[in-house]
Amino acid sequence: MRRYSAFAIAREGLRYHTGWERAWASPEPKKRYDAIVVGAGGHGLATAYYLGKNHGIKNVAVIEKGWLGGGNTGRNTTIIRSNYLQDPSAAIYEKARSLYETMSQDLNMNVMFSPRGVIMLAQTHHEVRGYQRTAHANALQGVATEWIGPQRVKELVPIIRLDGPRYPVLGGLWQPRGGTARHDAVAWAYARACSAMGMDIIQNCAVTGIETEDGAVKAVNTTKGRIETAKLALVVAGHSSELAGMAGFRLPIESVALQALVSEPIKPAMDVVVMANTVHGYMSQSDKGEMVIGGGTDGFNNYTQRGSFHHVEETVRALVETFPMLSRLKMMRQWGGIVDMTGDRSPILSKTPVGGIYVNAGWGTGGFKSIPGSGWAMAELVAKDAPGPLAAAFGLDRFREGRFIDESVAAGVAH
Ligand SMILES: Cc1cc2nc3c(=O)[nH]c(=O)nc-3n(C[C@H](O)[C@H](O)[C@H](O)COP(=O)(O)OP(=O)(O)OC[C@H]3O[C@@H](n4cnc5c(N)ncnc54)[C@H](O)[C@@H]3O)c2cc1C
């Protein structure tokens, strides 16, 4: 792989950009791999990358039914933060956030990580208590967050209205090194690095069946033929239950559409990310100038990847209370993704009842931020057939044993 650099851009500029090589290869599948990852979203690609980088397992295929990054990874609103309440969550999300800090250098591609800061607004007394508690928990966990009062919120977000008609802003939980990154670039960067290690990324290839023998995985059937493997990582977000069904077990996951929308582009108006959980909406401004707005999940299970008018209305109406200037903007595009929700709103990184099959799912509305940490932990689980410290608490057995990692408060709003 030839390195991207300022020098390379200058060189290619001089020769009309004729010398760039393809970022990743598109091979036909081999008959057998040491490990197969199903799903070329951020989590699947990061799993493959750390399998190679941290564990030396490079005879790996990543199988994707569509195009890489075309699932939730390319549909999210790119918020990155690690201000979670429970210790296992803070550990994995902070690991991920810290890997984002150096991702562009590590993967030699600009993923546009922008640690512009994230505020979670407190608009009820209940939220004030909740976020002050999270700030204390974060201090103990080594996650840099702080509780800030309304005046500091106003300094950070001049366009905000503090004395809204229903919910005045009472303060917020501020994570100065939270922010955003370019979602497609994260997928592309991992894909390029995997391909450079000799891994096969096979797009337009759906897994249609999973063969097992004596309680262990033997092969997958795909639209491009049968492929053998002894290790199979299912990393397919909203399709997790479907793939688990092919292997003969069930997952405690519900799939549901989550929607987002963007406004027309405007001049720079807000240089932090703001989340307003009570009125249920959140917003950041993209480099193009669009206000990127996220709403909530649909109230019923479904597999649609579409937006709907009632969500646009609900989300924008809620945000206009806190950001009155929004009422003057036109909304340009809306879309949806299928998110995978667990009961405790925490992910699953786990062995399964079938030997050699591992599942990484349940990131729900907030798994973009965790991509590098999740890939790191999942690769360790697959390589060693046992979870490491980051994944240990997220096993499937927690649902049987009642050891929930209850982040439902933190996941009260989609992000
Ligand atoms: C509107 C929206 C906004 C969001 N905002 C944020 C945010 O601001 N911050 C945040 O942290 N998170 C956010 N999220 C959540 C985040 O996008 C997801 O948690 C994350 O992208 C999941 O990544 P993934 O790699 O697990 O899944 P995906 O990116 O969905 O990848 C799974 C892949 O598996 C493939 N697949 C499925 N079935 C098969 C099969 N049978 N064979 C082969 N391939 C298959 C799919 O095609 C897909 O490409 C948001 C999600 C949505 C929808």
TrEMBL record:
Catalytic activity from the UniProt record: sarcosine + O2 + H2O = formaldehyde + glycine + H2O2; sarcosine + (6S)-5,6,7,8-tetrahydrofolate + O2 = (6R)-5,10-methylene-5,6,7,8-tetrahydrofolate + glycine + H2O2
Main location: cytoplasm
Keywords carried by this UniProt record: Cytoplasm, FAD, Flavoprotein, FMN, Nucleotide-binding, Oxidoreductase
Signal sequence interval, chain numbering: none
Cellular compartment(s): Cytoplasm
Ranges for domain Rhodanese: 36-79
Domain of life assignment: Bacteria
Cofactor: FAD; FMN
Top enzyme category: oxidoreductase
EC number: 1.5.3.24
NCBIfam families for the chain: soxB (TIGR01373)
Family stated for the protein in its record: Belongs to the SoxB family.
Name under which the protein is recorded: Sarcosine oxidase subunit beta
Organism: Sinisalibacter aestuarii
Higher taxonomy: Bacteria, Pseudomonadati, Pseudomonadota, Alphaproteobacteria, Rhodobacterales
